[in-house]
Specification:
Elements: E1 4-13, E2 16-26, E3 31-35, H1 42-50, E4 57-62, E5 65-66, E6 77-80, H2 92-102, H3 107-121, H4 136-149, E7 154-158, H5 166-183, E8 186-191, H6 194-200, E9 203-208, E10 211-216, H7 218-223, H8 228-233, E11 240-247, E12 252-254, E13 259-261, H9 267-270, E14 277-282, E15 287-288, E16 298-310, E17 315-320, E18 326-331, E19 342-348, E20 353-356
Parallel strand pairs: 3-8, 3-9, 6-7, 7-8
Antiparallel strand pairs: 1-2, 1-4, 4-5, 9-10, 11-12, 11-14, 12-13, 14-20, 15-19, 16-17, 16-19, 17-18
Length: about 375
């Protein structure tokens, strides 16, 4: 078993709290992604698993063992860094062998493990080269290969793709996902890129200011964000937000520029709450120009187009209802509107997200 458990974990530097009250259960064989903006505590949490950061409070467990006082070399983990951390004077084979030599692995076993990792990552032909002779993507494969040869209980990845160009990032994230699926090793992956998180993780843990905001599958956090921060952070383009109040006995959401009827499926949440201030979230894909089929109940919002960004398969339309309500919608590229054109955007009412304006929490029954 290689379950990783944070229980009431805190990390403080003097009077500065970086992480406070972190509780997270990472399951055996799971690919867990820690995601959030810079400074949210995700890399610090990873380094506490590795033993590279002391724990100020609470416990971190790997398997059935609390590892707070266990040396990094005895935790049965392997870490892949953003900076590759390869020895420049060694060949690729020697880099892959380094950790095994320290553990006094027999030569025959060492050769088997190195050759197996190299074949798995497609770097067999590079074993006699030095790191400076490799591209960024090849160096990152070597860094991953060095972790694989260890056969650890837990893989730790600290923003490993940040130094790669966009095309290589897409390729490497697919390779890392396939590798984890093949090896079935518990994996904790840190990134600030929500696209990496959504495409790679079995589950995602979203952090902000050292606190856990939500844990769930990519689809769960996308469709049911627990608060405004998660709703804004997950999804491209970011979710639209409009201030509104509940009116007409819970049947209407009144905004400064337009009003929307409440879908029947949400009436239990809004009934009897007239005057309550909300923030209404609308994803771009749940707004259209009416040229594609609409799911469920719908309503229309009159807007004026300010910007149209063609992306080939779709056009992102930035339109203003009035005042500061700039709304982003996805429309068919064959029906792209012109700048300053007036049109009506169709809203899928059952896809709205309702958040309490005071607490910023999602409305729940």
């Amino acid at each position: 078993m290689a379950e990783v458990v944070f229980k009431d974990v805190a990390k403080r530097y003097g009077d500065v709290s970086v992480i406070e009250g972190l509780n997270l259960d990472i399951r055996d064989h799971e690919f867990m992604v820690l995601v959030g903006p810079s400074g949210c505590g995700k890399s610090t949490a990873l380094r506490m698993i590795a033993g590279l950061e002391e724990i100020s409070g609470g416990t971190v467990s790997i398997g059935d063992r609390v590892v707070n006082e266990v040396a990094p070399k005895d935790r049965d983990i392997a870490m892949v860094f953003q900076s590759y951390a390869l020895y420049p004077h060694m060949t690729i084979r020697e880099n892959l062998e380094f950790g095994l030599k320290i553990r006094k692995t027999p030569k025959a076993e060492m050769d088997r493990l190195v050759n197996e990792a190299a074949e798995m990552l497609g770097i067999t032909q590079l074993l006699d080269r030095k790191p400076k002779q490799l591209s960024g993507g090849q160096r990152q494969r070597v860094a991953v290969g060095r972790a694989i040869t260890r056969k650890p209980a837990v893989f730790l990845f600290d923003e490993p793709l940040s130094n790669l160009d966009a095309k290589l990032r897409v390729q490497m994230r697919a390779e890392i996902s396939k590798l984890q699926n093949r090896l079935k090793t518990t994996t904790v992956y840190v990134t600030h890129d929500q696209v990496e998180a959504m495409t790679m993780g079995h589950r995602i843990a979203i952090m902000k200011d050292g606190k856990l905001q939500q844990v769930g599958t990519p689809l769960e956090v996308y469709e049911q964000p627990s608060n405004l921060f998660v709703a804004a952070f997950i999804g491209t383009p970011p979710m639209n937000f409009v201030k509104a109040t509940i009116a007409d006995g819970g049947a209407t959401l009144k905004g400064p520029a337009f009003s929307l009827p409440v879908a029947q499926s949400y009436r239990a949440l809004t009934a009897g709450k007239d005057g309550k201030a909300l923030v209404v979230g609308i994803r771009a894909e749940n707004l259209s120009d009416g040229s594609r089929p609409v799911r469920g109940e719908s309503a229309r919002i009159p807007v004026t187009v300010e910007i149209a960004e063609p992306l080939g398969h779709e056009v992102l339309v930035y339109a203003r209802a009035s005042g500061d309500d700039l709304i982003v919608a996805k429309v068919d590229p064959h029906h792209a509107p012109a700048i300053d054109q007036k049109l009506e955007l169709v809203v899928e009412l059952e896809a709205l997200h309702l958040f309490d304006a005071a607490t910023e929490r999602r409305l729940t029954a």
